[in-house]
Amino acid sequence: MGLIGLSFIVASVVYVIIRPPSWLPPALLSWLPRSSTAAAAMTDARQRDEKSPSSPPPTIVEPREMGRAAAMSPPPVPTIAEPCEDRAAMPPPPPQPPKPVVVQPPSIAVEPDKQPESPTTPKAAAAQLPPPPPTFSLSTDSMPPPPPRPTPSSSSSTSSMMPPPPPPSRLSSAAPRPPTLGHFPAANSAQRARAPILPDRGPRSSSSSSSSSSGLAPPPTHTSVPTKPSRQITLEPGHSPLDWARLSGGPGADLRGVPAATPYLRVTPSMLRRQTGRRGTDAWMALGGKVYNVTPYAKFHPGGVPELMRGAARDGTRLFAEVHPWVNYENMLTACLVGILVEEPGPAAGSGGGGGGQPQSDMEAMD
Ligand code: HEM
């Protein structure tokens, strides 16, 4: 109680100093300077605050101390700034717009006219956002229009572009074919016949007799091209026409199949019929009155072995002319020449000449 009473007395003295009543003698007022008196009163009040923390009296904070306290960032101490005469004499601060602060420091800057609502918790204010980063707009308004894409329907693009590749279906349908010898021999090749190969031997067989009413069939010419579809086959490797030309074109090439010293034979129809190409025999073929051993040529024949063997052991002149009259067989089969086809000797040895009716009939029968 004594302490409270003492405090009350001190407060009264301070109040009298701050607001001297009118009845106070003027001499007492001029005794001490006013500022020092106020400072002394403040010092006394602080000493009393330390002694009695349970009931903190209102503290007068001057503006200078307030600014220093804010700069040093002391722990937040709730203070109450009461208006004083100096503060009252100052013009009110202009209203300041709230400044956006990113992070508020823990110190509390207590303004004289404001009282913090929560003295311990710093409030976060609206943060000042940094300037937005530059952005890139993808809008087509600011971009130049892209060049027109070539379309198949545009005539200008098709003129400068290659045509599109064929669809895979077309590619797959066209199966890769090995190189064939479809157009061999060429038109100017030596394998082509240069003249009609068949002598006119009278009326043709029943297949062509309908067109020849006079009985004399024209010799086969290059204009009478057969209309049969191509039946060429795939030759084995090393059996191309060029390979055959290399094999049979040498100066000493002998592919006759007979002893080397054997002269050209006079081959009768009966002899020819035994050379069928089977049972270990060579296949002989008569073409234009000459007899050739066609066995070495069989695997080189573009039409295949079976087709070639259709003329084996017989006179294949007409058959040959029906298929490919343009082929120059004489040049191609020079190394295969066995002899000449002669008529069969007659049973009568004294008939002479080696020719009679029977051989002639055999020759015609072979055709
Ligand atoms: C007489 C029996 C013969 C028959 C039945 C026969 C049949 C054929 C056939 C069907 C073709 C395919 C024709 C085509 O693709 O259009 C052909 C092509 C050919 N044959 Fe014969 N052939 C025979 C005799 C010969 C002989 C003895 C030679 C050679 C001296 C020969 C040389 C050729 C040649 C070079 C070709 C290709 C012709 C070309 O592509 O223009 N053929 N043969």
TrEMBL record:
UniProt keyword Heme present: yes
Key words, A-Z: Heme, Iron, Metal-binding
Pfam families assigned to the protein according to its UniProt record, in alphabetical order: Cyt-b5
Biased composition (Low complexity): 152-161, 205-214
Gene Ontology cellular component annotations, sorted alphabetically: cytoplasm
One Gene Ontology molecular-function label: cytochrome-b5 reductase activity, acting on NAD(P)H
Listed Polar residues bias regions: 222-233
Domain Cytochrome b5 heme-binding intervals: 264-342
Transmembrane segments: none
Extent of Pro residues compositional bias: 90-100
Key word Heme present: yes
Gly residues: compositionally biased ranges: 349-358
InterPro entries with a match to the protein in the record: Cyt_B5-like_heme/steroid-bd (IPR001199), Cyt_B5-like_heme/steroid_sf (IPR036400), Cytochrome_b5/Flavoprotein_Rdt (IPR051872)
Chain intervals for the UniProt region annotation (Disordered): 40-257, 347-367
Top-level taxonomic group: Eukaryota
Name of the protein described by the UniProt record: Cytochrome b5 heme-binding domain-containing protein
Native organism: Beauveria asiatica
